[in-house]
Design goal:
By secondary structure, this protein is α/β, with parallel strands linked by helices. The protein is built from nine helices and six strands. It has a six-stranded mixed β-sheet with strand order 1-4-3-2-5-6, covered by helices on one side.
Length: about 240
């Protein structure tokens, strides 16, 4: 009658949504992590609502950049604001945090956050288009950590312990800032300078980044050195 053999059940299809739930989550996690190791595209044209405009990524390689995506209606996003502010304060000029929303007209909301948002805050759809969509990120808050070389080193939740660990590692890997070499003040008298060849006088100006292309005669070089190099400290160019 109605009894079916065990082999009949094996052929029955599973409900459509069931087999894909797990694989979709795995696929999404893999897509998000696939951002790591990729070069961060230049993010331009954002409208800054608070803080100083910054280059994303850092052009001179002297800073680690955090690009954090948020929205005003997102509770977990608002909960992350103080944490991001604390990181910006902790790592000072080695880190630039940029919070970006795709919502327009958020200036008043941002100002109301006060000390909770003590970092650069901007709006625009560029981060969504250049970073979130290409890597399948559709949840917020979401943060990207970009190292000094412009490579994405973290893609995930800003409250995860791995987020700050990655920031620390990237800061440790930054090239040490070059120490600027101060050049000595010129103490020679006008008469002493006049005894030097023009080539040497010109080099004094060139080393200090002072214009000399408009000078022709030795007295002109001497006059410019006397005017510019006796009381102002210059650094090697």
């Amino acid at each position: 009658g109605s009894f079916r053999a065990k082999s009949d059940f094996a052929a029955l299809p599973l409900p459509e949504p069931f087999p894909d739930l797990c694989s979709e989550r795995v696929k999404q996690a893999n897509t998000m992590s696939s951002a790591v190791g990729q070069r961060c595209p230049p993010i331009q044209g954002l409208r800054v609502m608070k803080g100083a405009p910054v280059d994303i990524p850092s052009k001179d390689g002297s800073k680690v950049t955090v690009v954090e995506c948020w929205a005003s209606w997102c509770g977990p996003c608002r909960a992350a604001f103080p944490h991001l502010s604390a990181l910006q304060k902790k790592y000072k000029d080695k880190l630039q945090v940029v919070g970006v929303t795709a919502e327009p007209n958020m200036d008043r909301f941002v100002q109301q956050q006060g000390a909770n948002m003590e970092y650069t805050v901007a709006c625009g759809e560029q981060v969504q288009e250049e970073l979130m969509m290409p890597y399948g990120v559709n949840g917020i808050p979401h943060a990207f950590v970009v190292d000094g070389a412009g490579i994405i080193r973290y893609s995930g939740h800003p409250m995860s312990p791995d987020f700050e660990k990655t920031i620390q590692a990237c800061i440790s890997a930054l090239a040490p800032a070059k120490q600027r070499e101060a050049l000595p003040l010129i103490t020679a008298t006008e008469e002493e300078l006049k005894t030097k060849p023009v080539k040497e006088l010109k080099q004094i100006l060139v080393d200090r980044g002072i214009k000399s292309s408009d000078l022709l005669e030795k007295p002109e070089f001497v006059r410019r050195i006397m005017e510019t190099c006796r009381s102002t400290v210059y650094y090697k160019q």
